[in-house]
Amino acid sequence: MTDAPDEEQDSAAGAEQAPRERPSPVARAPLPPASDAVRAEWGRRVEAEYRSAAITQHLTLWLIQVGASPDLIDDGLRIVKDELAHARLSHRVHAVAGGGALPALRRETLGLKSSADEPLELSVARAGVEVFCLGETVAVPLFKVLREGCAVPVARRALDRILRDEVRHRDFGWTLLRYLLELPCAPAVRQLVERELHAMFVRLRRSYMPPGGAQRAAISDDDRAWGLMPVARYGEILERAIDRDYVPRFGEHGLDAAAAWRRSASAPARTAAPT
């Protein structure tokens, strides 16, 4: 220790002996009240993310079985981990919102079905198009809108992560379709998409555009802060995705998504909730 004038030493000694003051905690703004709708929606998202993880795991098994590109297999396994992370984040929001125990998952929804009457590559194509080319593509703008109105920190962190990952999940679907259309089974894959795309759109309409949904255009500011949006917005986002995403992306492969979408409009309506 170097010598110092007495006053400096006294000052230093006093500083060492003085009790350290703890920093004052930063006051946090109170959370807006969470409604039953908030708890129900985040609980539903937990279930949806678990279901997505299971379905993607099953699809990745099929990719292994058909000897697909290692890059596609790696991407599928990464998506499984993403979906499980999304489920954990969503469950945290559900708990902070005051949610209780969630119902058991319906095990029959946690997988895919293949047909013994067709090559496995076609089952891969069917799942890849509906789950990723359709579902994950519209999920990108959907979660972007949910995130924009979200102010509750725990919900915002969840939506930040989900939105970031959804972009990669969307790209996986279109990469998978392109890969399948370069295989010897390409003609059969093309025929499958041309034959079944309108039915996939029917299911998408029933999820995002339920009867009477266009009239449900308002929610409370508190619900919006928790990461919800009006049912009508789901339909609007899907409508925009047709021209902005589906038509040009399928068009790159000579597939007419616009005609399939128009055909889906004539299907009988059935009550459904946005997924």
Description of the molecule:
The relative contact order is 0.12. The chain has 275 residues and is an all-alpha fold. Mean pLDDT is 88; it is low at 1-19 and 271-275. It contains nine helices and no strands. It has helices spanning 6-17, 36-65, 70-96, 120-148, 153-180, 186-208, 221-225, 231-251, 257-264. Helix content is 67%, strand content 0%.
What's the quick description here?
The protein has helices at 6-17, 36-65, 70-96, 120-148, 153-180, 186-208, 221-225, 231-251, 257-264. The protein is an all-alpha fold and 275 residues long.
Helix content: 55-70%
Please indicate the percent range of residues in DSSP E strands (runs of 2 or more): under 5%
> Low-confidence spans: pLDDT under 50, at least 5 residues?
1-19, 271-275
Contiguous helical run count: 9
Quantity of strands, as a count: 0
**How is the quaternary structure best described?**
single chain
Please describe the biggest sheet, giving its number of strands, its sense, and whether it closes into a barrel: none
The rough form would be described as: globular
Radius of gyration over all CA atoms, rounded? 25 Å
Mean pLDDT: 88
Order of helices and strands: HHHHHHHHH
